[in-house]
Design goal:
CATH architecture: 3-Layer(aba) Sandwich
CATH superfamily: Gcn5-related N-acetyltransferase (GNAT)
Low-confidence stretches: none
Shape: globular
Mean pLDDT: 97
Largest sheet: 9 strands, mixed
Number of domains: 1
Number of strands: 9
């Protein structure tokens, strides 16, 4: 992969319109998170120095989003990572930015690799670049609300059990968690309500191709846990758990 170049969007602002050119592995329903719709454009425009882009020649082959925030600000649990995970750190980051609060931590938000370039070690390179970028900006820690890549195959398994499952060599069972631990990360805790996606049953039918006509749990391809369907009320809600990983970098 000698042709791969990883830069920040601040260094190459012309790539801002190309970030979503590549085909990624996110399931369709994940494209409809309300907080993401609101804040992804702001990450691009207001925090480009924390957005990483990997290119191979003219092609965008991976992207990484991160945000700085004040984990240890008053009222935020004394440095404990929040149960609200992904959603919470995004909200904190832009609240801090608006109010001029000095950040003390960087949180990963997303690392995605083009589907035709997966299996080449790009995710690990992007994680290393994210750590290096945070260190270069004076931060001592990167945290990540990790979406375990193998969990969709076990939607009924408790995230608390899955997060801490290991192989014989002591490394995590999950491939994406394993990349983080190999990079020096430590599994900290579970974020049980890291991302919430709600929609009408009609929207969920459109997103998934499933009927969504029975009350209860619906197993959706790509989802880490079942989606809760309430057809009599006309809606369904997905509450995704993630796994918090801490990376000490200084």
């Amino acid at each position: 992969m000698t042709g791969i170049e990883i830069t920040t969007l601040a260094q190459r602002p012309e790539l801002a319109t190309r970030l979503w050119d590549m085909k990624d592995s996110w399931p369709e329903f994940a494209q409809h998170d309300a907080l993401a719709w609101l804040l992804y454009p702001r990450m691009v425009s207001e925090l480009p120095q924390y957005v990483l882009v990997a290119t191979d020649g003219a092609a965008v082959v991976a992207r990484g989003f991160s945000v700085p925030f004040a984990l240890r600000a008053p009222g935020r649990g004394g440095g404990e990572l929040p149960a609200g995970g992904w959603d919470q750190v995004l909200a904190w980051a832009f609240s801090d930015l608006r109010r001029g609060i000095e950040p003390d931590t960087v949180s990963a938000i997303e690392i995605s690799v083009a589907t035709d370039r997966q299996g080449e070690g790009l995710s690990g390179r992007m994680l290393a670049a994210m750590r290096d970028n945070a260190a270069a900006r004076g931060f001592a820690e990167v945290v990540a609300p990790v979406r375990p890549s193998g969990k969709p195959a076990e939607p009924d398994t408790s995230i608390h059990e899955y997060a801490y499952r290991t192989r014989e060599d002591g490394l995590p069972h999950d491939p994406w968690l394993r990349v983080h631990v190999r990079a020096g990360g430590v599994i900290d805790s579970v974020a049980p309500l890291s991302m919430t996606i709600s929609g009408s049953v009609g929207q969920w039918r459109e997103w998934t191709g499933l009927p969504f006509d029975t009350r209860g749990e619906v197993r959706v391809p790509g989802a880490l846990v079942p989606v809760r369907c309430e057809p009599e009320q006309g809606y369904a809600v997905y509450v995704e758990p993630n796994v918090w990983v801490r990376h000490r970098i200084r």
